Each structure stands twice: as C-alpha cells, then as structure tokens.
Amino acid sequence: MRLLPLRTICSSRTYAFTPEVQLTPTAKDRPPPANSNFYITLLNQCAAEKSLTQTRRVQLHMKQTGFPHLSLGNKLISAYLSSGSVDDARNVFDDMPQPHVVSWSSMISSYIRQERSQEAVALYKSMIIENLVPDEFTFSSIFRAFSDLRLFNGGRTAHGQSVVVGLQAGNVYVSSSLVDFYAQFGRLGEARIVYDSVKAKDVVLSTALIVGYTKNGEDRQAIEVFGEMLNSYIQANDFTFASVLIACGNLKDLTSGILIHGAILKSGFGSWIAPQTSLLSMYSKCGLIEDSLKVFNGILNPNTVAWTAIIGCLLHSHREEEALSMFRSMILNSVAPNAFTLSTTLSVCASLALFEQGMLIHAYALKSGLAANRFVISALVDTYGKCGHVGMARMVFDSLSAPDLVSLNSLINGYGQSGNGEEVVRLFDMTKRLGIEPNDATYVNVLFACSNSGMLEEGRRVFSLMFTDHSLGPSNDHYACMVGLLGRSGRLEEAEELLSKVQKPDKVLWRTLLGACKIHGKLEMAKWAARKVLELDPGDEGTYILLSNIYASLGKWKEVINIKCLVREMGFKKDPAVSWIYVNKKIHTFMAGDQSHPDGELIYKELEELIEKTKGLGYVPDTSFVLQQMEEFEMERSLFYHSEKLAVAFGVLSSRGKTCNTITIFKNLRVCGDCHNWIKLVSKVIGKEIIARDAKRFHKYRDGLCSCGDYW
DNA sequence: CTAGGGTTAG
C-alpha cells in the first residue's frame, strides 16, 4: 500500500519551524524513520490545530510504518480529545495496557463536556477498582457527572476519596466543584462545610457557593457570602457579579442591586455580557423595566441569552407586544433562538392567546430540533390551551414519551378553560398511571375546571383527595375554587361553612364568595363578604364594582350611585375593558365607545345591522349590566358600544367573503352578560363560530349556543 | 472548578 504523503500531515507553515523532522520536498514519498520525537511533534501540532483528520492520518501512518503507536498512546489520546473525538480517543485508551492518569482524567472530563456523564462515571469507577489515584483534574470534573446523573451517594463517596488522597481542602478546584455538587442536591450545609474547609479561598469557590444559595432560594445568604468575599479582599469577577445579582433580583433588593451595578462599572465589567444580562433581569424583577431596557440597549452585541432575558422581562412586565417585537428583532439580527428563547416567546403568545404566532414558533421548533425540549413542549401545550385549541395542545402533549407535571398541568388547564370538565377529571384520574404526582397547581386547575363546568360532585371528590391521597394541605386558592363551585351551584350556606374552616382567609377567597352572591342576588351575604374583603384590603376596587353590580341587578340605583361616588372619591382607576382581535397579522384593539379605529364608521354600521338582526331573533338588551342610572335608551346605547361588541362587529366585517369559519376575539376582563347573549345570537345570524377568550376562560359560540352552557 | 436567560398554577 502506498503511504500517504507526509506533506498532507504536516502543514508547510508548521514544519518550517520543526527542523529536526527534516522534511524536504524530495523526501515526501519516502517513509520517515521510526522516530518518536517526529510523531510527538506531529501529534502536538494536531492537538494544537484540533484537527481530527490530521490525527487520524498520523495514527494510520504510525501503523503503516510499523511504529508502536501505543507507546505514544497518551499523546494520541490528547490529540483526539483536543480534536473533539472521545470515541477515537477511547479506542486508543482501551488498547493501552496502562494509560497515564492524565489520560484517564482527560477522558473523564471530555465525556462530561459532551454530556456523557454515564461513561465518565463508569471510567471513574474503573479507576478506583484499578487502584489508581485520581488527580485533582479528575475530581474537579467528576462531581458534575454525579450531579447530572442525580447520583448523590456516588458523589459523596467520591468526596470521601478526594479527602483520602488529600485533594479536597487544599485544592480550590476540587472544592469549588464539590460546593456546586452539594448545592445541586440542595445540601447547602455540606456545601458550606466544604467551603469553610478551604483556607485559601478564591473567586471561583465563593462564586460557586453564591450560585448554590441563589439556586436554592437562599438569596440573603448569597449576598452575605458576596460580602464575606469582598471583606477577604477577593476580587469579584464577571461570574460573581452575574450570580449575586440574581439574589438581589429575587429579593427585589434594589439597594444592593444598584450598589453592585456601581461596583461592576468600577471594576471594569460594565461591558461584559453576563453581568449586563443579570443586571437587566434584576431591574425588571425590581419593577424597573425601563432600566432593564437601558441596560439592554447598552449591550453591543446581545447574544441569545441577553435577547431571551429581555423578552422575558417584557413579558413579566406585561408588555407583551414589545416582547414579541424584541423576538422579531432578534431574528432580524441573526441571533439564533434556543429552547429558552422559544419557551419564553411561547409564553408571550400564551399570554396574548396568539394562535398563529404560537404555531409559527412550533414550526420553528420542529425545524431546528428544539421541539423535543420539555420546556418548549410544556410552553406549547400551555399556548395552544390558552388559544382555545386544546386539541393541538393534546397532540403536543401526546408527543411526550414521559409526560411531566408542568405539561400535564398546562393540558388540564387547557381543557378547563374550554369548559371540558369531564376530560379534566379523566386526566386527573390518570396522573398516577402516568407516574406523575399531582401538586397544588394541579389541584387548583382541576378544582377550577370543576367550578367552571359546574361539576359539584366531582369537585368534592377531588377536593377530599387532597387530604387522603396526597395530604397536600389545601391553600386559600383551593378553598377559593371550592367556594366558587359551591357558591355557583347555589349552595351558599355550604360555601360559607367551608370558608369558616379556613384559618387565614385572604381577600381572593372572600371575593369569590362575593362573586357567588352576585350570581344568586344574595345581598346580605354579599355585604358581609365585601366588608371582609375591605378589611383586608380597603383599596380593593373590584369589590366595590361587584357590590355595585349586585345593587344594579336588583335595581337599587341609589346604592349604585353611592358606591360609584365613593369609588370616584377614592380615586380608583378601573382597569378599562379592552377587547382585541387578530386580523391580517395585526392586533386591533377596542375600548367601549372607541372611535379611534380607521374603519370606525364601517364598524359602527356593521354593529348597528347586527343588533337589528339579532333583535329579530329575540335579542333584548339587558340593562341590568349597566352601572349608571340612565334613561333606558342611553343604557341601551352604552351596552351597544361595549368593546367586545365592537370587536365582534369588526371580526364579522373583515371575515365577510372569506373562507374562515371562526372569528376569535379576546377581552381582558370577563365577558358581560348582555354581550354573551348577544354574541350567541350573532353566531346564529352569521352562521359562523365565534370564540371569545375572556379573563377566565373560552366561550365558543355556535348556532345560538355557547360552550360554557351559560355557566361562567 | 464558578456565570447570565426558560414552562404550569396563584
């Protein structure tokens, strides 16, 4: 067999500096002498250039010239590992009678870098069996493998071994990763002991402990360690600043946050991406989204993490539209979204119930291979559910080989929102078989669904399971669901009795009772519940509104006016009702009596016609939903211009002549009773399905009926 | 060896 020309192995640029190889163009086809220095030089170059092909060629060359290549096995391994092929390295490794400890440890850390912790641990164990003494490099990487595999005992044993060989307390590398290991298991006591055992602490060790504390909700401790660190004159680095700011954000400790911002600028880390990203997150958690944006705008080349962070900040500040346009800018700036980005952006879509956008991201996830990520999946389930497409949510959910708690909760919520209480209960009864332990959120979702669908007996059964099956003490939220369920089923006395068992009822609970009183016109109990809410929060405007609604529905206009005056005096700004609809890739927003839409005239004309047609089908404006005392005619007018009616009119207008059979509108508050009746009739008039998502759930109107069965 | 961003429920 012809030998490979050496020129291809050794680039001309490098061999000029390695005269001992003596490669001359005339010598290129002659086999070289079996000189280990020659191969060492070559392998060093291969490692430096990280070239897998070159390394393979060198090994082949060794075999062809009969050179005992295993004598340079450690070199070969190192070259293969530098060029990224653990498997090639492993082949050499397995052939060697006695690989060097350095080879063992670099094999182990390479496996870990490639997320092959299983193989790393296996190698570590053989090392121990063969009575080899692992070095500091082995120890500093192996703990990561144990925490990846959730093998606490394995890691603890390795900790013991590191102590035995005298490598723990004296070595910051080993100790830092040990601190991280213990923190991954929530064992902060042990982490702290390891940390304290090190005499010569450094930045990395301290940072590891800070991170450990923040990941386990011990944010105060994290800030304390940061202080200790500064007192010992250890300079914080970009990692440290990035980590300690998380603690400030979690605690909403703006004072510390601003101090640290100053320290970052002073120590020259002001333009480093990790501290900047953490800073902007911190500001948003402290409610200062403008400052987040300022920091973000100061980042020269935001990477995926920074973009994701700012999208998340905008989402949490309820600036969803801006969050979406940030996502678009990210794409325009050719920064590739990852699973974090997609799940965050999907959350934005879920929040605005943007079905099409959600599907686009779903498509992107499938193309880019991110659709298997469980965060992406549960965000998709959530988004589809909140868009009223629970079938799609189910499809995504079923793609999970092992469903997890979050996606299950999202799916349950999806069915609950679209009023399919039976499926919710079926899923709930299946959780055990799926190997999932329900948590408090599961119960909130299930009970809420029962309440939404008026499933009294099922609700009671599920509620009692909280005590017997899971001994999850019900929280106020669970009680609120039950009070709502009992109250809406007309069992107000029972609801009241249940409420009396709650140790510390919160205002949500009392307001739920108040809501139930409203449905059944129970004025006395309503007044009592309202008083309770106001004792807890005198500024709760929702209560005033509910109360005035009750008076209004009973026709007691004097009381209504009194409350309205009171509210006005107190200077509340009621969240205005807003409805919106997605037409031609644009969000069109409407407020009551809104004249601002460019097609305003056409919309009002359409609305008038629809009202006339529905009146033909028996629509009678129900003025008890109007809060002011007005002339009957005016009451009607103000009803007619409710935001959801305008949105429906616009939807009808813009879907005319198009093939789509569904009009979907959204409202930030709950749909009003009069509009609810009216939209039912509209669906009959236009012969199309109308979906309305309000603050609590979906209403699917078809042929004069609504999926909620008028129960909401 | 250490780092920044993520899903449900309220």
Automatic annotation (TrEMBL):
PANTHER family: OS07G0578800 PROTEIN-RELATED, PENTACOTRIPEPTIDE-REPEAT REGION OF PRORP DOMAIN-CONTAINING PROTEIN. GO terms for molecular function: RNA binding; zinc ion binding. This is DYW domain-containing protein. It comes from the Eukaryota. Keywords: Repeat. It comes from Dendrobium nobile. InterPro entries: DYW_dom, E2_motif, E_motif, PPR_At4g14850-like_plant, PPR_rpt, TPR-like_helical_dom_sf. Residues 618-712 form the DYW domain. One of its GO terms (biological process) is RNA modification. PPR repeats lie at residues 100-134, 202-236, 303-337, 404-438. NCBIfam families: PPR.
